[in-house]
Amino acid sequence: MSNLTNDSFLEGEDGNPSSAASGLMGLFAGGILISVLLAFIYSLFCFYNPFVHFNIFAPIVFGGLIMFSVSNIAAMLKVRSVNAMRAGGFVSGLAGMYAAWVWYIYAITKFKVLMLNPYGLARATQALAVTGVWTFYGFRPTGIGLYVIWIAEAVCVVLISSQAPPLKFQFCEGCNEWIDEKGKKVRLAWIDVNQLKADLARNDYQFLNTAQAAPADAGSYLEIEVKQCQQCLNEAFVSIESNKTTTSDDGSTSADAAIVCISKRVPGSVATSILKRAE
User: pLDDT-derived band of residue 115, with 50, 70 and 90 as boundaries?
Assistant: First the structure.
């Protein structure tokens, strides 16, 4: 996975290349394979489950498992692009729903007919819509009502599977490895949040390189979590939270906390400079 491109679909949220084409193909292939296997379990549960009301929650679980599987496959293949993970989850969700129908018809026919043909599958679902497939408190949906339920089920699965959970770790592009070290927290002297955000947007790290460590009893300070690649020390990420305490004229105090940035990529030298002030 060394052939990185500048295509935005292959980039992480910070604009850095995050996925090779081979990684994306593996993500799609792995996601589809897992979703087909999960669809088998999902279909058997829906078919054999005697408590129909539990089936209401089954699509949520099914979509969530696909999303979880896709995100883990992405991590193994070093795919970090949120858009790529969402696309992988979307395609896997569609494949999972199609496979679920294939397995469901397979179960209905006592495991004799494996209907892979889209046309044949559509005819089979039309036949099921005429008679209905389950009864809920004496109500047996058929026809358009049943189609609406099936569409809602598919939308639920695909929407959930298309969500990209936050990445657990950051990635060092130089080492081509995840940075799984636990972040270290440092308190620095407080600065105006808007000014700091503007500096970071310009990749101006002068304040981070020169600010003094905040005293332990400081009422206002910046709490900075630093994650740095320990193999090369060249790549690092910082998450900054502002904590400001103000005192009113009547002597009462109030504390305000605000997020400045989350996982902002910074040069390794900046991280090293910050960590030295924590020693």
Answer: very high
**Cα separation of 219 and 243, whole Å?**
8
12, 80 Cβ separation under 8 angstroms: yes
Q: Can you name the residues that pair with 225 across neighbouring β-strands?
A: 185, 239
Beta bridge partners of 242: 222, 258
Answer yes or no: pTM beyond 0.70.
Answer: yes
- How far is Cα 120 from Cα 117, in angstroms, rounded to an integer? 5
- pLDDT mean over 40-69: 93
User: pLDDT value at position 218?
Assistant: 86
| CA-wise closest residue to 74 among 92, 99, 98 | 92
Which residues in 157-193 are b (16+ Cβ under 10 Å) and which e?
A: bbebbbbbeebeebbbbeeeebbeeebeebbbebbeb
3-state secondary structure 78-91: CCCCHHHHHHHHHH
Q: How far apart are CA 237 and CA 227, in angstroms?
A: 5
What is the structure's pLDDT at 167?
A: 66
Q: Do 63 and 161 form a contact (C-beta atoms < 8 A)?
A: yes
Question: How far apart (Å, rounded) are the C-alpha atoms in residues 277 and 202?
Answer: 24
**φ, ψ dihedrals at 156, nearest 5°:** -60, -50
Query: Across 37-117, where does the E strand assignment appear?
Result: none
Q: Which two tokens stand for residue 229?
A: 């690649």
Helix axes 143-161, 58-76, angle to 10 degrees: 30
φ, ψ at 134 (rounded to 5°): -155, 165
